[in-house]
Amino acid sequence: RKKVSRTLLTSSVLTTVKSQHNKRTAKMPSFAKTAITALLLALPCASGFVTPKVGVPTVNAPVSAPESNTALNIMNDVPYGEESRKYRRTVYDFDAWKKHRSQDRFWYNMKTILESGIYRGLLNEVGAVSAVAALAIVWNGLATGYTDFDGVTHEAVINSLPKLALPMSVFTVTSPSLGLLLVFRTNASYERWDGARKMWGLMINRSRDVVRMGAQWYDPSTAETGYCEPGTVVEVDADERADKLNRLSKSVWSFSRALARHLTPPEEDEEQFQKDVRERLDPEQAEALIAADHRPNRAMYDIGNAINDLPMHYMRRNQMDADVAHFEDISGGCERIFGTPIPLVYSRHTVRFLTTFLLFLPFGMYNQFGDSWNHIGLIPSASLVAMFMFGIEELATSLEEPFSILPLIGISNKIGVNCDELAKFTPSLPSTSMATASSVQEGSPSMASKTAVAK
Predict the structure, then answer these.
(1) What pairing do the DSSP bridges indicate for beta strands 146-147 and 153-154?
(2) pLDDT tens track for 411-430
(3) Model pTM greater than 0.70?
(4) Distance CA 269, CA 106 (A)
(5) DSSP string, 165-204
(6) For residue 416, with 0-12 CB atoms within 10 Å meaning exposed, 13-18 middle and 19 or more buried, which class applies?
(7) How open is the CA angle 230-231-233, to the nearest 5 degrees?
(8) Lowest-confidence segment of 18-22, 178-182, 249-253, 285-289 by average pLDDT
(9) Spatial CB neighbours of 280, under 8 Å, sequence gap ≥ 6
(10) Which residues contact 370 (CB under 8 A, 6 or more apart)?
(11) How many whole angstroms separate alpha carbon 379 and alpha carbon 381?
(12) Do the Cβ atoms of 233 and 453 come closer than 8 Å?
């Protein structure tokens, strides 16, 4: 009897163990399908932001002139990164502003969301958050149970695993601090961009002003004494005047062009810079500018020489020199922005805070998606949140160094065109205009003191 009872007991235990093993074995293929589904869903949530690397058509734009006269040519085919920054130097015109404030801008911007360079550059970050969300679904499916494709609910596959979830209150408490960090980060970056653009706007104004003063105050009667003697009659050599004003115009242009090169990587602009300078300047002046260690300083020196060569009242020459002194402020201000980023401790802390926040966010959002199949809605939701929040930091980083996204060469070319036009202006009433351009010793204009005759 004892032998029989032992045999029956052993058989019963083996049957029970075998039954449990078969149940677990039956669960595994079903759960594997669920897990694979979660992983496959995580892939497209990140693959929409993949930066193409092979077979991507590129834009064959001139190195020195990637700026466009319109903002309508969106460069979707250019891979995002350092190479694409030079194609973001848009200059708005009337058509661009019409499109910018169009009532269709909302749907257009949503339609092109996956073509945005900002979002396409966030593959690694969004992919990591999507992977964490998929991990939370798979892990908790093993630990707490899951629902198969037939809608059948299964028990936990591994009862010893803990559930991975965090209370949302953790993120509710920390989100205001993260928001303040991101706001300061973006504001500080925008101020740097705005400051750089204002400096180059001031350069446009001062460049035009210097050439305008040179053209209007050109006065041969002051060549020897530095001021005008009342009653003198002066002949103006039109060719000589044109040559000297042309030299001034080209020298003013050379400063903006040299500063643009000074703030641009050598591999992007050095070759074109040398070509432009040799085409527009005299050979001796061009080679001296190219050989200079600090080219903007050399360009300012050339402007000073061109001003000194103009015959005019000494007080008006001082006024022109005061305008040229602003070029030094502009150059130094640009170098300050370029050489000094937002304090690295702040930028790094913001990135670490944001990354940690978003990587743990799927665990806080997990319980909120209990009504979706196996919490699968967590993956696209977490990916979208990560895309937009990482995008804020990416925008700030893009604006922090503004010179690679500002149309510096386009602005320089505009200065050259405007200054050349100003240098060619001639007085429509020679006696009145040139008399206004002359001055007595005290520096005040004398309308009736002299007569200028255009030769």
Answers:
(1) antiparallel
(2) 999 999 999 999 999 876 55
(3) yes
(4) 36
(5) ---THHHHHHHHHHHHHHHHHHHHHHHHHHHHHHHHHHHH
(6) buried
(7) 120
(8) 18-22
(9) 250, 253, 254, 286, 416
(10) none
(11) 5
(12) yes
The distance from CA 17 to its chain's CA centroid, rounded to whole angstroms, is: 65
**How far is Cα 333 from Cα 360, in angstroms, rounded to an integer?**
41
Q: Are 402 and 196 in contact (CB under 8 A)?
A: yes
For the record, the structure tokens of 269 come out as 């602009």
Question: What's 230's DSSP letter?
Answer: T
Maximal CA-CA distance, the chain: 147
Q: Tokens at residue 76, please? A: 């979707």
* CB of 189 closer than 8 Å to CB of 176: no
Distance CA(217)–CA(87), nearest Å, equals 41
Q: Which two tokens stand for residue 41?
A: 């869903």
Helix, coil or strand: residue 416? helix
Question: Distance of CA 119 to CAs 58, 131, 175, 302, Å?
Answer: 19, 17, 22, 46
452 DSSP 8-state letter: E
Number of H helices and number of E strands within the chain?
16, 4
Q: Which of 153-162, 364-373, 416-425 tops mean pLDDT?
A: 416-425
pLDDT-based confidence at residue 38 (cuts at 50, 70, 90): low
Q: Other C-beta atoms within 10 Å of 354: how many?
A: 20
CB neighbour list of residue 182: distance below 8 Å, 6 or more residues apart = 350, 354, 389, 392, 393, 396
